[in-house]
Amino acid sequence: MLKSRHIIFALAGAMITASCSDDNYQLYSDPDEFGLNPVAIVADADGGDYELIVSGTADWSATFGETNSSVDGWCTLSQESGKGYTKVSVKVTPSSSFTKRRSMMLEFTSGGKKLKCRVLQGTQVLGENEVLINGNVWSTVNVDAPGTFCTSPDQIGKLYQFNRNQPWEFVSNPEGWSSAYTNDGTDWLPANDPSPEGWRVPTANEMAALWEIGATWVTKAQTGFELPGIVVGVDEATAQMVTKENCRALGAMFLPQSGWINSDGVLDRTWLVAVRTSTSLSPTHGGMSLGDSGGYHDIWGWGDGQKERAAMIRPVKIINIED
């Protein structure tokens, strides 16, 4: 079903005014001779089909003008030529950007006259438990059982060994514990990723870039979270203002103090924040970001990222970032 849109005159007027000098916008044309309605389409972030009416009696043709998106075919027409009165479907694909509004100029020509329609698409909206940092959408909560999220940022959730989707409870000697498994040195494979659908374990580069913006230890008294931990993704001054209520609004992410389960099945280094990444650093080591209250940071986990150790996962959303 086509979506009809009543364009707000102020928006259309602003777009037309901004485009007059460069695009030679024709503000009015006799619809009985050659007309185009509407002159602007505001598309939803999820995309869809929008109706554009070409009026008149003569032959007409359409072309695609300038666009600010590198994505091919994000805006298409049901037909690019015709004669007389025609209802054209403008198909818009879902946006993959949380920061950039796609724009496309459609140009229609008939009898030496040119009319234009601007298609403008809104950005995606972050979900309740999502935060945008470094161009990536991060979950504000950890992975719990495979395919599920924790309900709060201060919950550790389940712990996972490298490239395995076997969940382990955050206890010493969890039932069924085994550190014996084969890993051939590959990165974390999608088939073994315990993240919920549409999410994945972040790479070492993604996690390192996140921590490099800022990694600040915070206490329960400051934040109101049930555990101390590290605030990442913002500078120290901003991190010092973080509370349970405003963390996401400040563009920050809280990682709870946790540690890991070692190869013997025992909870170890529980004074650390320890987060798994999907990058294989060697046949026996995988990326693990670490930090403590004394300012110690081991972003890459060269010394402590042994693959048989189980640690928490903070996933990143699978999206295609537009330039």
Description:
The protein is mainly beta and 323 residues long. The protein folds into two domains: 9-121, Sandwich (Immunoglobulin-like); 126-323, no CATH class. Helix content is 10%, strand content 31%. It contains four helices and 21 strands. The protein has helices at 9-23, 204-213, 220-223, 236-239, and strands at residues 34-37, 40-43, 48-56, 59-67, 75-77, 81-83, 86-92, 102-110, 113-121, 130-133, 136-139, 199-200, 215-218, 229-232, 253-256, 260-261, 267-268, 273-280, 286-291, 297-298, 316-317. The strands form seven sheets. Strands 2-9-8-4-6 form a five-stranded mixed beta sheet, with no helix packed on it. Strands 1-3-7-5 form a four-stranded antiparallel beta sheet, with no helix packed on it. A three-stranded antiparallel beta sheet has the order 13-14-15. The radius of gyration is 26 Å and the shape is elongated. The model is unreliable at 4-25 (pLDDT under 50).
The rough form would be described as: elongated
Q: In this structure, how is the largest beta sheet organized?
A: 5 strands, mixed
- For the biggest β-sheet, the strand order reads 2-9-8-4-6
Report the end-to-end length measured between terminal Cα atoms.
Answer: 31 Å
Q: What is the CA-based Rg, rounded? A: 26 Å
* Contiguous runs where pLDDT drops below 50 for at least 5 residues: 4-25
Portion in strands? 25-35%
Count of discrete alpha- or pi-helical segments spanning 4 or more residues: 4
